Amino acid sequence: MDDTDAPGGPELLPGHEVALGGPRGMTVRRTLPDRGRRMVGAWCFLDAYGPQPIAPGAPGMRIGPHPHIGLQTVSWLLRGEILHRDSVGSLRQVEPGQLNLMTAGRGIAHSEETPAAHSGVLHGVQLWVALPDGARHTDPAFAHHPDLPVLAADGLSTTVIMGELDGAASPAATHSPLVGAELRLTAGGAGTLPLRPGFEYALLVVDGPGARVDGHELTAGPLLYLGAGRTALRVAADGPATLVLIGGEPFDERIVMWWNFVGRDHDEIVAARADWAAGARFGAVHGYAGPPLPAPAMPATRLAPRGRVRDLPPWS
Questions:
Q1: CATH code (residue 220)
Q2: CA–CA separation, 111 and 93 (whole Å)
Q3: For 131-147, what is each residue's pLDDT tens digit?
Q4: Binding-site residue ranges for Fe cation
Q5: How far apart are CA 177 and CA 197, in angstroms?
Q6: Is residue 255 part of a domain?
Q7: What is the pLDDT of residue 9?
Q8: Is there a contact between 225 and 206 (Cβ–Cβ < 8 Å)?
Q9: Is a pLDDT exceeding 70 seen at residue 3?
């Protein structure tokens, strides 16, 4: 099917399991990019993992130094700890309720690992935001935000991770109109959030058996794409539940996503891969006890820029 910019929705994106670091690595469920729907606003990547027990002496998460271009990484935890190092000299542990935001710009490298002293469990999400053309060659940067705005209502607590929601704005830097938030529902809790009709939205249950989203039953695992044109969202749950909400203005630029890179054409990806192999552009990550990750081989055919969505049947 040809790429199209038709909005559509709602749709259920089941995702698939991916082993980070190879077959013996940590398993995550990846719901973005999906074969048909590659983005929600500028959000172009979503991995959910855990809760995964980490036995004493076990390595937990260990992702060696690797490069990025053209995106922001958003690290958000429900339980556990991750130690971040990068090539601009950052060393920061992220814990539940805190945001680690890395802006790759023209090029950065980083590693992620479970620290030596940890709580014995890991549960969270990793997201990427595609940078628009005017910001994707910016200087690389890192920011840690331990204090984020929280909206509290009967049975629903909403932490604004990125962007703005219901008048509460995150301090995190954004480069396109978007929002990311964590929604926590108590048992029997419910609430309504105002939405921007010009944004498209999606929801993921990351803890608890499920929730009701505008009357639809949503279980843990798949991503529910809600489409655009909505002015409000009603969520409810019989038992305690945590969801992640992402949204933003539809991203109209065509992009190439390959390995850890977000570019605009095949040659840009080839150049970034060559620079990583040559030890150029991305800098060095100091302090990680292990080698950097090698880039995979380029595909035999040229990478084609793609739009954010293909035609898909509606979810019901």
A1: 2.60.120.10
A2: 12
A3: 999 999 999 999 999 99
A4: 66, 68, 110, 112
A5: 13
A6: no
A7: 56
A8: no
A9: no
In a domain, 18, yes or no: yes
Question: How far, in Å, CA of 56 to CA of 73, rounded?
Answer: 28
Alpha helices in the chain (DSSP H): 266-278
In terms of Cβ atoms closer than 10 Å to its own Cβ (0-12, 13-18, 19+), residue 79 is middle
CA angle 156, 159, 164 (to 5 degrees): 115
Contacts of 7 (CB under 8 A, 6+ apart): 200, 227, 228, 229, 250, 309
Residue positions forming the annotated binding site: 66, 68, 110, 112
Number of domains making up the chain: 1
Q: What is the pTM of this model?
A: 0.94
Q: How long a stretch of residues is the chain?
A: 316
Per-residue DSSP letters for 132-164? PTTTTTSPPEEEEE----EEEETTEEEEEEEEE
In a domain, 279, yes or no: no
Residue 226 is part of which domain span? 11-248
For 286-295, the pLDDT digits (tens) are: 999 999 999 9
